[in-house]
Design brief:
The protein has helices spanning 3-18, 21-38, 47-58, 63-74, 106-119, 149-159, 180-189, 211-225, 241-246; strands spanning 83-90, 96-103, 123-124, 134-143, 163-167, 170-175, 196-203, 207-208, 230-235, 237-238. By secondary structure, it is an alpha+beta fold. The strands form 3 sheets. It has a 4-stranded antiparallel sheet.
């Protein structure tokens, strides 16, 4: 994923300092509720829910909050009718962007995101325009200074990973979503520190961008991620680490 994986690592490390806890918790709880409603409320049988719960735990969310979200999904407690919608568009330099949103008002969210794209030299596209460019995968990042490549490769592949990529200062482990938990557990068992771990949308190909286009794309990413309804933003950019570090 080139620079995009490094961006995710930066976001993971700076997120705790930058995010307003209430806003972050609201997004995480919404993801838990929708994942539980759309699948099995037991995380052992629902990888998407298990991932949402783990992200909430990583953000130090109280267990009671998580349990209430699952109860709202099952109808035991009253809750809003959220639905998952993917919004697609393009950033500067022709970068394809995919926004995973949970909304109770499609028109409002669409109008808001259209305005954000326009403000940052991008444009919202029709449904289906870019989603086909991404595959759902588990992605785990390991700092190359924390473990040898051989040790990471051995643990990851024994856990069932699809591949391990050398991405400048990090090793990027790619898995099928169904193998994600096993690979993560294998790395932890081997004592290998993990920078970030998530089930995400991985671009099939990347678009190199630099200079003003790169800065515009990063500002667009941050603006989209800051929207209340947006859970995650995926993009197929490849931006040099030096440019990414400017926002880190």
């Amino acid at each position: 994923m080139g620079g995009h994986s490094h961006w995710k690592g930066i976001k993971e490390k700076k997120g705790a300092a930058d995010a307003k806890r209430g806003k972050l918790f609201a997004k995480l709880l919404r993801a838990i509720e929708v994942s539980a409603r759309q699948g099995d409320p037991n995380p052992e049988n629902n990888p998407t829910l298990a991932d949402a719960i783990q992200r909430a735990k990583d953000a130090s969310m109280p267990k009671d909050n998580i349990d209430r979200a699952i109860k709202r999904a099952s109808g035991d407690l009253a809750g809003e009718n959220w639905e998952r919608v993917f919004y697609e568009g393009y950033g500067a330099g022709g970068v394809a962007m995919l926004c995973d949103a949970l909304t109770n008002n499609r028109n409002r969210t669409s109008q808001d995101l259209r305005a954000i794209f326009r403000k940052h030299n991008g444009s919202l596209a029709e449904p289906g325009a870019v989603q086909w460019l991404f595959d759902r995968k588990g992605v785990i990042l390991v700092d190359k200074s924390a473990a040898s490549e051989d040790d990471v490769m051995t643990a990851a592949l024994e856990g069932g990973a699809d591949d391990v990529h050398d991405d400048e200062s990090e090793l990027e482990i790619v898995t099928d979503p169904s193998a994600f938990a096993d690979v993560k557990a294998a790395l932890e068992k081997a004592g290998i520190p993990i920078l970030s771990a998530e089930i995400t949308m991985v671009p099939q190909n990347t678009v190199p961008v630099d200079g003003a286009d790169a800065r515009a794309v990063l500002k667009l990413m941050e603006a989209l991620e800051d929207h209340d309804d947006v859970q995650s933003v995926y993009a197929n950019f490849d931006i040099p680490e030096a440019v990414l570090a400017e926002v880190g």
